[in-house]
Write the structure tokens for this entry.
Amino acid sequence: MKLLLDTHVLLWFQAGDQALPKAAEQAIRSEANEAFVSMVSFWEIGLKHSIGKLPLRKPLDVFLSTITEAAFQILPLDIPHIVASSALPLHHRDPFDRMLIGQAKHEGMHLITVDAQFRAYDVPLIGL
């Protein structure tokens, strides 16, 4: 199964945070699954760090490098993802969430999140 991690799930997984549901952690660690991190999450982390909403223990470039060196595959942002995101109903307006949902739908991925707003969209979820 292909998995796409929501940004907060990625941060919790990297930090070993207990907020990450066990089912989500097991799915990420399972060798039967392919875990992906979107470039959209890198953008969100960089933006939130730059405006002071996301303190990091390491410099941003080092932090992002540790993610790319982990067992995650990187999902680029492509035109079909933008089209899929644009076609979503406006259940909420977070552009990062909408893009991740669009990517997951287009790629046929399960999205790992604990954000209850994602339930409003027709995308398979893990973690809720």
User: Anything to note?
Assistant: The two ends are 17 Å apart (CA to CA).
